[in-house]
Amino acid sequence: MDPQSHPRKSQLRTVLTMIANPGEVIKKQLIKIPWPYTILLSGLAFTLFFLQTGIDLFRAGTIGIERVILIAMIGLFFGTAGVVLLAMLSYLLAQGGKRNLPPGWAISNFALGYSVTLIYSLCGLLFSLAFHWNTAVAFGITGVLWSLRPTLFTIKQMSGDATVLSVVLTTLCGAIMLFGWGLLGQLGF
User: What confidence tens digit (pLDDT) does each residue in 96-115 have?
Assistant: First the structure.
């Protein structure tokens, strides 16, 4: 066996994994970082997602630039405090403490699960700025939906592999995140 082939396979596997599941690659690299820092990742993800929404509404002529900034700030709050609250709610309902999982672990895993949302939001923002496309729905929501897979696995670990409970809680978490984003439209933004 060629000694060069193993590193090549490893690099190829990393590239393919990054294409198929970019959030998981990032999560594996950042899992040892303390939870107060990991929520910055989810905060940035939702800031960019909500910024796309603001830019889309600005282009439609329904809001001014000050509202775009306000929407982005709401996204930061949503991606930090909102993710922490969802993580703690899921932790309590899934009884993560019974599995000797600390609350910080749950917060960190939830926040890192949104790394795929960060990637989609960043790509959406680039497409929005470069091509003047409305990208919040196509990229932002897609990123949130892709984050449900890591959320499901986190909840499964906290619940001791209780599949039904994990699916229900994951669905609830996804619905809360999308409902919160949709609430922006209802509030007159």
Answer: 889 998 999 999 999 999 98
Tokens of 171: 């669905």
Q: What is the DSSP letter of 161?
A: S
Instruction: For CA atoms 72, 82, 32, 158, give the dihedral sign.
Output: negative
19 within 8 A of 142, measured Cβ to Cβ: no
Question: What tokens does 88 get?
Answer: 């703690």
Q: Which tokens go with 61?
A: 């002529």
User: How much of the chain, in percent, has pLDDT values that exceed 70?
Assistant: 83
3-state secondary structure 91-150: HHHHCHHHHCCCHHHHHHHHHHHCHHHHHHHHHHHHHHHHHCCCCHHHHHHHHHHHCHHH
